[in-house]
Amino acid sequence: MLFFCAAISARADEIDRYVKAEMQRQKIPGVSLAVLRGGKIETLKSYGLANVEHQIPVKPETVFQSGSIAKQFTAMAVMILVEEGKIALDDKIIKYFPDAPEAWKNITVRHLLTHTSGMGDYPPEFDLRRDYTEDEYLAFIKKSPLIFETGAKWDYSNIGYVTLGALVRKVTGKFYGDFLQERIFKPLNMTTARIISEADIVPNRAAGYRLENGELKNQEWVSPSTNTTADGSLYFTILDLAKWDAALYTDRPLKQSSLAQMWMPAKLTDGKTKDYGFGWHTTRIGNRRVIHHGGAWQGFKSYIVRFPDDKLTIIYLANSWDTKDMKLARGLAAIFYPEFALPNAQPIEDKEPKTTALVRRVLLQFARGKADAELFTAEARAKTFPARAAQIGESLNSLSLPIAVIYTNELVERRDENNLRVYRYLLNDMTRSLSCTVKLTKDEKIADFQLREE
After folding, report:
1. Closest to 401 (Cα-Cα) out of 178, 63, 121
2. What sign for the dihedral angle of Cα 72, 73, 74, 75?
3. I want to staple 291 with a disulfide (CB 3.0 to 4.6 A). Which of 80, 168, 306, 321 is the partner?
4. Which residues touch 437 (CB under 8 Å, ≥6 apart)?
5. What's the whole-number average pLDDT of the chain?
């Protein structure tokens, strides 16, 4: 027992060193963190400030915004209704939305849960600062064309989860947030978990932040209705999430057989699978199962990583939009499992953000199969298109969440070579890393673009 306690203490010290170093490097104001074994808190840590202006420190009772880890709660709400026989996973959603467009005819509840419906993200004309009714949200979604044939691919879709929130109301007659409160939060004694509200008095509420030219700024404002949708609009504390994790080992509020369905990889129509279940990424590193999800919204980042076979869970909440969320989560996992160790290359100061923005744009284009060949020199164009471009796209789409990994890449090398500017970036996913090396000419053309496993 003495040895076990000493091991926990040593890990806690290592966690302290890692989190404090990353907070300083990434300019994260505050972090709330918990490590749990079998649903019981092993380590509980509070770092930095919940509110910089008032110099209020983070504590276990500090309330953070969820971001997309709220999707697992929306998914559980749907699965509760599935257990009760009020919804079937393979129901076509036109059963519940009879005025849906023809393009929705093959979309099932399962497709929405697994991001395989073909729905994209919020349309460009959507205004985050305007209040919409739920019907107006749905009208926007219905007008948006599918970006691929239902079931053929996987693409992260926030509006798919907004639609699931509307589905809960259609079936129960209740706002999905009230359903969560009644069927999940109250039964689990998650006393501070709730839908976001800027108007209500919320004790211990943290402020969210972002970096602008390296300077800390307050989170940007969005409309009240934008903060109530089922894709990621919750408040909770680290203590709430500890209770949530404990419940996932029980049959309340959902049976273990239903949870097992939530953690199964999605099947595509060509027989391939994507390591995403219902509101959770689900994968393996070696023989170790990993169930995880992150969140990013309005000045906040969050992450929950579960190792179900070892009954170990790591959760953190941070109040900076610029937190390298997957990297921070993976670094914490590596304290327990060496196979999660991050590459040795250290980030360097990025003095050319316009170049980084270009690289991110091109990576996103590759991931979507729409890379702009005109950004490349004639020689590089001949080498890259179409075969290498397809390979790069395939590598990027094998990441757990390509857009999140791409937008949190880090510059690790900058040098000059034969009249070319050379940049090397690391893209850190939860279980692997990619190295992206780009060579640019004086006139900003891409002379070479390489992506490889690190």
Report:
1. 121
2. positive
3. 306
4. 422, 423, 424, 425, 448, 449, 450, 451
5. 96
